[in-house]
Specification:
By secondary structure, the protein is α+β, with helices and mostly antiparallel strands. The protein has one domain: Aminopeptidase (3-Layer(aba) Sandwich). It is built from six helices and eight strands. The protein has helices spanning 20-27, 31-38, 48-60, 108-122, 138-146, 167-173; strands at residues 6-7, 11-14, 65-71, 76-86, 91-98, 128-134, 150-154, 160-166. It has an eight-stranded mixed beta sheet, with helices on both faces. Strand 3 and strand 4 form a beta hairpin. Helix 1 (20-27) crosses helix 3. The longest helix has 15 residues, at 108-122. The two termini are 23 Å apart.
């Protein structure tokens, strides 16, 4: 599904556009980005058709919502999604990619996640959001912890860590998150 326009302090989350695919191709052909995102070295060239297939799959599915992450100056810097949503159980999983390296370590990923979680817990009435992260990706782990995620164990894949955040914990640790930013 396509997510609604959401506004954070530093970012906007918006529906993907046709021109976004080419940036995703560039990001997912960068060895450092691929290593942090997939846990391994690139093994094949990511093409525009792959980016379009990813987008179409998420937008057509009822168990996922996808957004582009853009700066307040409307520069597309990444993508974020909720997937494996089980609305009845109140659960979903999150994936984020801040692909534009110029925006790493600047708080854009944290703001994107907090904006998404505010929507997930308030508008979608989810109770918990989980994710997987590679243990060597210390920057991502710090970002997730700032958003309220805690480690819940080691994932089935070697080197992965499972993390989760509950609705209650998110709003206790982020009391300002209930406010809508414009």
């Amino acid at each position: 599904m396509v997510g609604p326009w959401l506004s954070g302090e530093k970012i906007n989350l918006r529906p993907l556009r046709d021109g976004d695919a080419i940036r995703r191709v560039g990001w997912l052909n960068d060895p450092q980005t691929v290593k942090l995102f997939t846990g391994s070295e690139p093994v094949w060239v990511y093409k525009r058709v792959d980016a379009e297939r990813w987008r179409q799959t998420l937008e057509a599915g009822r168990l996922a919502i996808v957004w582009a992450v853009e700066t307040k100056r409307h520069q597309h810097i990444g993508d974020v999604d909720l997937h494996n949503m089980d609305r009845r159980a109140g659960l979903a999983r999150l994936t984020i990619l801040i692909g534009d390296k110029a925006f790493w370590n600047c708080g854009y990923g944290t703001d994107a996640i907090k904006t998404l979680l505010r929507y997930a817990f308030s508008d979608l009435a989810l109770e918990s959001v989980g994710l997987r992260v590679y243990g060597f990706n210390k920057r991502a782990i710090r970002c997730y912890e700032k958003c309220g995620f805690t480690r819940v164990g080691v994932a089935p894949e070697p080197g992965e860590i499972c993390m989760t955040v509950s609705k209650e914990r998110f709003f206790v640790e982020n009391p300002d998150a209930s406010a809508v930013h414009t």
